[in-house]
Amino acid sequence: MHLFFRAMFALGVAFAVASIAGALEPETLHGEFQLAGPLDHKGSPGEGKSHLYISLTDSAARTLYESLAVDPHDDSCTGYRLKARGNVACYEINPNEEYFCSFAINLERDAIEAGLGGCI
Fold this sequence. Notes:
Layout: H1 2-20, E1 30-36, E2 51-57, H2 58-67, E3 73-74, E4 81-85, E5 88-94, E6 98-106, E7 111-113
Antiparallel strand pairs: 1-2, 2-6, 3-4, 4-5, 5-6, 6-7
């Protein structure tokens, strides 16, 4: 049951991120999630269930990318335009067409951490 409450917290954080991004009306999220352990030295999730990795695509990723109050820059690792605020990273893959955002929720510390898809 403890995992259920942590998952509910994680969903609450995800909705908070969406509201920070300026979403006035609820929208359908597109992307995926993975429950796993912390990232290893290669950027791959480890064993366990301490982190909820969230990857957003489509309009949710575009909305979050556009809402991050930072200037974009070219990411030398991925080759895409990147906007990052704290541990939330969003990439503009094809200008005005394709976006990807990633972050993780550390369920043990109730904290936002780096997600999948970037370079370490």
